[in-house]
Amino acid sequence: MHGMINRALQCFMQDTYGPDIWEAVVQTADLGFDNFEAMLNYPDHVSLEVLRCAARHLQKPAEAFLEDLGTYLVSHPNVEAIRRLLRFGGDDCVEFLFSLNELVGRARLALPELEMPSLWVEPVREGQFRLRCSHALPGAGYVMLGVMRAMADDYGALVFLEHQGWRDSGEETVTINLLETAYTEGRSFELSERLVG
């Protein structure tokens, strides 16, 4: 697993639950180090063990933990770059949904070695979409559930999301019901960041 993903998991734990909880997870997982390095690769079993230990320490189902991680990835100020990458996908929630079909390609332009989930969005009927997601590690669909929930809020849209489970192939499916595209005023977004000086 790429170190950037593990580093994001570490930052989520530290920013949300504090350094003491992260230290407890490090000890329980018997990592042998305190911090993930963003540019290194780690065996998948290390990432799975950290996830397992984190969910156990927080007494939270792994699915809920992963969804919270997805929300963090686009809503916390420390990871604003991810939100910006996703917002370049479109002016409204529908454009954003279809832009997910190209997200892996866009991300690989910046980081060719980053192993992202394979994503595919398709319309089911008016106002309903299906997101198919597959990754070497299980649970990527729950991370996307959190990402989608946070991005809907970002656009001011009202959505109902439901994880539909796994297929034998490892693919996860999320149903997206877009109830209202302009339910509230979304967060402001500009193509260029303002420099404070």
Features:
197 residues; single chain; globular; alpha+beta; 4-stranded antiparallel beta sheet; H-NOX domain
Explain this structure to me?
- This protein folds into two domains: 3-60; 91-187, H-NOX domain (Alpha-Beta Complex).
- It has helices spanning 3-17, 19-29, 44-58, 62-75, 80-87, 93-99, 103-110, 140-155; strands at 118-125, 128-134, 158-166, 172-180.
- It contains eight helices and four strands, in the order αααααααββαββ.
- Helix content is 48%, strand content 17%.
- One of its GO terms (molecular function) is heme binding.
- Residues 2-156 form the Heme NO-binding domain.
- Pfam families: HNOB.
- This is Haem-NO-binding.
Topology:
Elements (H helix, E strand, L loop, with lengths): L2 H15 L1 H11 L14 H15 L3 H14 L4 H8 L5 H7 L3 H8 L7 E8 L2 E7 L5 H16 L2 E9 L5 E9 L17
Antiparallel strand pairs: 1-2, 2-4, 3-4
Helix pairs in contact: 1-2, 2-3, 4-8
What is the number of domains? 2
Report the strand count: 4
If you average the pLDDT, what whole number results? Answer: 87
Helix and strand succession?
A: HHHHHHHEEHEE
The amount of beta strand, in percent, is: 15-25%
Q: What composes the largest sheet? A: 4 strands, antiparallel
Can you name the CATH architecture of the largest domain?
A: Alpha-Beta Complex
The termini sit apart by: 38 Å
Identify the CATH homologous superfamily of the largest domain. H-NOX domain
Can you tell me the residue ranges where pLDDT is under 50 for at least 5 consecutive residues?
none
Gyration radius from CA atoms, angstroms: 17 Å
Structural classification = alpha+beta
Helix content: 40-55%
- The CATH topology of the largest domain turns out to be H-NOX domain
